[in-house]
């Protein structure tokens, strides 16, 4: 593709030459440049991509998109905002793949990974070919790719959509993080369905205020647009979360609501918890069907209702929704049980916000017949305000809370733990900085029918300390501790 064709829709401030080279690839990382690449220079959080312009030229780049005039001899197109330009160029270079796909974006503080997996199960059952993009991985056509971000930068995202469309994918379920929305990673993505799970405090290190955070989330709904031609457009909103009223105003698309209240279009009724799941009646308009969800917790009913709504507006029948939700497989690190024959329960869960911890602990407390222990920490270089809150919630539900390290990143683990302990109101807690020792300790205390919750890291297989990713998997550490105890018995 010629440079000018690729950039014809950009708002261009300056062009260094009228030379119009052929572009064979688009790159935002100078290290990946090959002969014929277009390099888009981004000002990042760590480094400024503009400082790699000369390197890009030496490696054979044909042209550069930048926010300033550069001292290179290849064509430079100066734009106001390289991130915006990148999203437009990427969509164009990969021939607008999302025009060919039914794209379902899921946003909200908690439940995105779970909801997208439930959507995947429903679409698989309906024999549609669905691609998944999110925290755990990108997955389509029987292949799985590692994720660095929950929502990738626009360039990788558009390439992924193109590969999906070429592989015969028809529908995509993707997690859309608030950071991705704020940074414009999904500009250029033509969403058909936008789903909102809930909003509670998180990521305030990044967004600073809850209003900014809310605003970032609302971008998914404001960019959803109107329904035109034969294209499906729908905003799927959780009516029981007050933020939905604002999102309803933000979107021009038709709205379908879900929730437990009577006012919802898609309703969950007659909830009944069992140790292995939740029975409820799924009502859509005047249709209703009983459903035996193999997931515990009221919050998972919300996730199921969100997934059911997205599937319903995409044309999938209630019967298919029922059978696929009933057969849903466990999601890695989400209420994942570690069971090697011990007589107490060990649950690994990704609750790393106050609201998710509250939900998971409430659910466990409702089901437990004996003592409940929780091992939990908070990530470093992340929202500090959630630390005392999470500690308070942990000790309020558990008979004993063991506070430990999550991913300390660049922070002193003792300092993070001090922030947590500032929130406690009882003495039902202990502090053990080393996460392996904390898990060992919890397991050494358990007796028959007790429940141990290990929260915060879920599926993660590493612990990040000062930029180094050490192998660490709560499920493996718990298994070893249980085995050690069983062998000593
Ligand atoms: C704060 C943030 O969002 N950072 C993202 C950002 O990194 P960055 O700004 O530090 O990039 P940088 O290293 O400064 O590089 C700037 C530019 O120079 C280029 N470069 C760099 C080096 C070089 O030699 N040559 C070169 O050209 C880079 O390719 C880049 O284009 O761009 C990277 C590439 O797209 C992202 O992977 C990275 O996400 C990091 C890993 C991150 O932790 N992000 C978090 C905040 C995030 O986005 N989280 C949400 C999920 C949260 C949730 O689910 O709860 C997410 O969607 O993942
Ligand atoms: N609808 C929900 N409401 C509140 N808490 C939830 C909900 N669904 C899941 N959780 C809790 O939040 C944790 C994370 O769930 P999930 O991974 O689905 O969310 P997420 O939005 O993808 O999170 P992240 O932004 O970190 O990727 C779960 O392990 C569970 O404890
Ligand atoms: N996407 C979230 C995940 C947090 C997981 C938790 N284990 C932590 O490290 O804080 C974040 O990066 O804030
Ligand atoms: Mg997720």
From TrEMBL:
Residues that coordinate or bind UDP-N-acetyl-alpha-D-muramoyl-L-alanyl-D-glutamate: 30, 149-151, 177, 185
Gene Ontology MF, one: UDP-N-acetylmuramoylalanyl-D-glutamate-2,6-diaminopimelate ligase activity
Cellular compartments annotated: Cytoplasm
Residues that, per the record, bind meso-2,6-diaminopimelate: 382, 406-409, 456, 460
EC number in record: 6.3.2.13
Alphabetic keyword roster: ATP-binding, Cell cycle, Cell division, Cell shape, Cell wall biogenesis/degradation, Cytoplasm, Ligase, Magnesium, Nucleotide-binding, Peptidoglycan synthesis
Pathway: Cell wall biogenesis; peptidoglycan biosynthesis
Binding residues for ATP: 108-114
Residue positions, PTM N6-carboxylysine: 217
Limits of the Mur ligase N-terminal catalytic domain: 22-94
Protein purpose: Catalyzes the addition of meso-diaminopimelic acid to the nucleotide precursor UDP-N-acetylmuramoyl-L-alanyl-D-glutamate (UMAG) in the biosynthesis of bacterial cell-wall peptidoglycan.
Family: Belongs to the MurCDEF family. MurE subfamily.
Listed name of the protein: UDP-N-acetylmuramoyl-L-alanyl-D-glutamate--2,6-diaminopimelate ligase
Organism: Geomicrobium sediminis
